[in-house]
Amino acid sequence: MRSVSLGQRLYFAWHLPTVLLAVAALAVAAVMARSLARDHLDARARYLRWSVVGWSSVFASILSVVVWPYLNAVASVGVEADGTWRLRNYLGVELARVPAGETRSLRALDLGGLRWGAGHVEVVRASGETLRTVRIGGQTFGRFCASLGYTAEMQREAFGSVLIPPHTFTARGPAMGRALASR
Q1: Which of 33, 72, 149, 174 has the fewest CB atoms below 10 angstroms from its CB?
Q2: Phi, psi of 37 (to 5 degrees)
Q3: What is the pTM of this model?
Q4: Are 40 and 178 in contact (CB under 8 A)?
Q5: Confidence of residue 182 (pLDDT cuts 50, 70, 90)
Q6: H or E element at residue 70
Q7: CB neighbour class for 106 (10 Å; exposed up to 12, middle 13-18, buried from 19)
């Protein structure tokens, strides 16, 4: 199985502690809510627990807004022996499995004309679902294309973006359709 890592571990160093803080804030809110339901408390103690529940819930929701985009972004692409793609986030959680015979296209956005920019790669599935990668640079995109077998002839430059037309993926690499390969 081939695997291409798109993200830098240092770039994600802040993310895992943020996830853990959000989970801890939710745990504090749950403990306080359980205490409110279980214990017989005076008014002041109830007010304090409701305050803790409220503030920890607000804190957890703010952190989840910060955390969600990276939990939902593709950070590595693994290719199985038959050509099936397994798209995972930086924690290793599988976001999608794209079968080998499924048509897909790729769009690399905001890389710039000389690929000095930093942008995203979007994997567009046959169903129309779009999966977006973490922010990558031009060199990482070049390594991504070389590892998966996308040659320069397969890539179409368009206004600072790189488009790879619809294709399937086999054990040997991308299989462009006849109509697409003749262009």
Answers
A1: 72
A2: -75, -30
A3: 0.76
A4: no
A5: very low
A6: helix 43-71
A7: buried
